[in-house]
Design goal:
Keywords: Membrane, Transmembrane, Transmembrane helix. With about 350 residues, the protein is of the alpha+beta class. Helix content is about 15%, strand content about 30%. It folds into 2 domains: about 60 residues, no CATH class; about 280 residues, Jelly Rolls. The protein is built from 4 helices and 18 strands. The strands form 3 sheets. Strands 1, 3, 4, 8, 13, 14, 15 and 18 form an 8-stranded antiparallel β-sheet that branches. The N terminus and C terminus are likely disordered.
Length: about 350
């Protein structure tokens, strides 16, 4: 439908516009508003956190709500609410809640050793039991990175360059699972999207894929990663792929990496624990140091490999609640004009 015609009808509908025509018009308007956004939406994800649990202050387990109703957060630590989310994302999508909130992750180096083993970091995380994905999957988020984890003086970086994981999908001592996040560059100002998995139960053959897609701290991005197992055959790793998506101020960038054998054994069983914000929670000198310092507007996990068109559609789609409110508001405007 021509949106110029839609707007003209809203501003000055014909005086003889009958109710039946109004109903047909509103159906067409809804179709027009949703057309082009792809067949997959955030509401169809296996897990979808909009991160709109509160307006300010510390974030609790009860406020970190999975809108699919599938999962409950636990062990929320060093999390708070960020109300400074831009009204429009780089890809054109609205924030995933009506007030533009995001979940802020605030890890902290409690003992500074300038990136040595003396560093003790309090990770910022929450966990979800039975919240992981396996096999073919996709992870989408809107994120802003605040840079390397800092110490008490505010200037001492922890592990530069280092890994800053957005999520740990069940990776543990058995070597099964994967990590998704960032690998920082030596400048402490930029980082690249990265994926890490094992050789299916053994850390002797790890498989790491670090993209060339770079983000700059303090800037919001639409970020995605899609893993496709292909035929799941170790003899044909070219059929397996990891595709990174990054939509920033300069537009959409993508990068696909092949040649890594990926199977259910190199991802994880869905019964494992998902950790968001770091490789490990709590306070320590090991994987806690690999914490993400920044904010997430939303996080969605799909137990399927999305196409590029579907990823781009989700990046650009408005928040569904807003679309509904817009439609109701337009209907109200039209009815008021008819009464007048």
């Amino acid at each position: 439908m021509d949106m110029t015609y839609v707007l003209a009808m809203l501003v000055a509908p014909p005086l003889d516009f009958p109710p039946s025509m109004f109903a047909r018009f509103f159906i067409l308007l809804g179709a027009s508003c949703t057309a082009g956004f792809g067949s997959v939406t955030l509401q169809q994800a296996d897990s979808f956190w909009k991160f709109d649990g509160a307006a300010s202050g510390a974030a609790s387990n009860a406020q970190i709500v999975d809108f699919t109703g599938n999962h409950t957060a636990s062990n929320a630590t060093r999390l708070s609410w960020n109300t400074s989310v831009p009204a429009t994302s780089p890809a054109g999508g609205a924030p995933q809640d009506t007030l533009g909130r995001a979940l802020s992750f605030d890890p902290f180096v409690t003992v500074v050793g300038a990136g040595t083993a003396d560093d003790t970091t309090a990770a910022a995380t929450f966990q979800v039991a039975n919240g992981t994905v396996s096999g073919n999957f996709s992870v989408l988020t809107r994120a802003m990175w605040d840079g390397p984890v800092l110490g008490a003086d505010g200037v001492t970086p922890n592990d530069v360059p280092g890994n800053y994981w957005l999520m740990n999908n069940g990776l543990g001592g058995n070597g099964i699972g994967f990590l998704f996040g960032l690998l920082g560059n030596a400048d402490g100002q930029t980082a690249r999207l990265a994926y890490y998995t094992s050789a299916g139960g053994s850390f002797t053959g790890t498989r790491t894929s670090t993209s060339t897609l770079a983000i700059t701290k303090g800037v919001w991005y639409d970020i995605g990663m899609v893993v496709d197992m292909g035929d799941g055959n170790a003899a044909t790793p070219a059929d397996n792929s990891v595709t990174f998506y990054l939509h920033g101020p300069g537009g959409l960038q993508t990068q696909t990496v092949t040649g890594m054998y990926i199977s259910d054994a190199t991802t994880t069983a869905p019964s494992s624990t998902l950790t968001v914000g770091s490789e490990s929670g709590g306070v320590g000198t090991s994987n806690q140091r690999k914490s993400f310092d920044g904010s997430l507007d939303y996080l969605a996990m799909f137990d399927e490999s999305l196409t590029q068109a579907e990823v781009q559609a989700i990046f650009a789609a408005p928040e569904p609640g807003r679309a509904l409110l817009l439609g109701l508001g337009l209907a109200g405007m039209l009815l008021r004009r008819r009464r007048a």
